[in-house]
Amino acid sequence: MQLDLHQLRELLTAIDQTNISELTLKSGDLELVVRKGTSLSDRLSLPSTKQSDAISELVSPNVASLETIATSETNAISPLATPKASNKFEEILSPVVGTFYRASNPDELPFVEVGDQITSGQTVCIIEAMKVMNEIEAEVSGQIMEILVKNGEPVEYNQPLMLVNPN
Question: pTM of the prediction?
């Protein structure tokens, strides 16, 4: 399947104007995933030269960066689906749509860091929604394995925020 830069931009614009939150296109060894609600830098991964070459060929041989393809910060493009979390890790999910904050204010230390031990009921972040600061509490005790969202980024309902290795 050949798809030039113009066609890809049209596709992204069309998706942006719908309520579609994720689209996956597969062709041979290439898998192109477009997601709304995540940033490009968080989700972009090019695990092999072969896949990188395939992306460049698919989009356009003259495209230097995939970031130039995105028509909106809310679209993410990755050549492969984001690796699934290990079944042993629990996800802390956003209960609301809003803005993710790691600390109660910019001068404070983050609630948690990767590697921290947490307990059920402990505040791990804040989601600001409609000028209301919602403290998000862990529903499981364990160790923070990964923080999936950057400070100040918008998040969607039920979006994974952190991975926890439960005790």
Answer: 0.49
